[in-house]
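Lab notebook: predicted structure, single chain.

Context: the supervisor wants predicted structures on file for every construct in the current expression panel, including those that have not yet been purified. This is the next one on the list. No modifications to the sequence; it matches the entry in the shared construct table.
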Amino acid sequence: MRLVLQEFLSLDGVSQGPGSPDEDTSDGFAQGGWFVPHLDEEFERQAGTWLGQADALLFGRRTYANFARDWPKMTEHPLAGTMNGLPKYVASHSLTKAEWNPSTILSGDVPAQVAELKRQPGRELQIHGSARLAQSLLASGLVDELRLVIAPVVVGTGRRLFPDGGAPAGLRLVRSATTPRGLAVHVYELTGHPKYGTYGADA
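Prediction complete. Output recorded below exactly as produced.
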C-alpha cells in the first residue's frame, strides 16, 4: 500500500484543531474550527473520492479518539459507511483497547510497523490529520504522497505540520485545484532529499 497523508492547513501552516473549537485545545490553543467555514460541496466530493481509494486508515491517538467518538454517530453522512467499515490502525503508547471496530493499536516501533503495513497488498493507507504521527513518518521517509488542503485563513498560533527543525524533503506537485469557498488543494509526491542550487547569470 502507498502511505498517503491528508492534512488541513491554514495559510500560515497550522494544522491544529481545524474541525471545531474543542477539537484540540492542547497548549492553550483557542482558535479551533478555522477550517469549517470554508467547506463546500466540491471539497466534500473530493474527500469522498480520496476516501474511496483507501484500503486502511492510520491515526494518531488524539485524532483517533475524536473520529471514534463522532463517526459511528454520523449514520446519515455519505462517507460514514466507508469510514466506519475500513480497517483502522492507531499509533499509541497509552491506549489499551480501541473500540471503533475494526481497529488495531500500534505501539513500540511505530515506523517499523507502518513499513510492514505498507508491504501488505492494497491501494492506500491514509493518514487523516494526526500531525505528530505524520511528522514522525515523514522523518522516516515512509510517506509517499501529501494531500494538503489549505484554507484562506491565518490562524496566528498553533501546532504546525512543518515545524522548525523538521525533516527536509523534496516534493513534486502532481495536482492543484481550488474550490468555490477558497480551499487550495495541493497534491505532492515525495521525491527524497531536496535539491539545492545557486541563482545567478552563470547558473
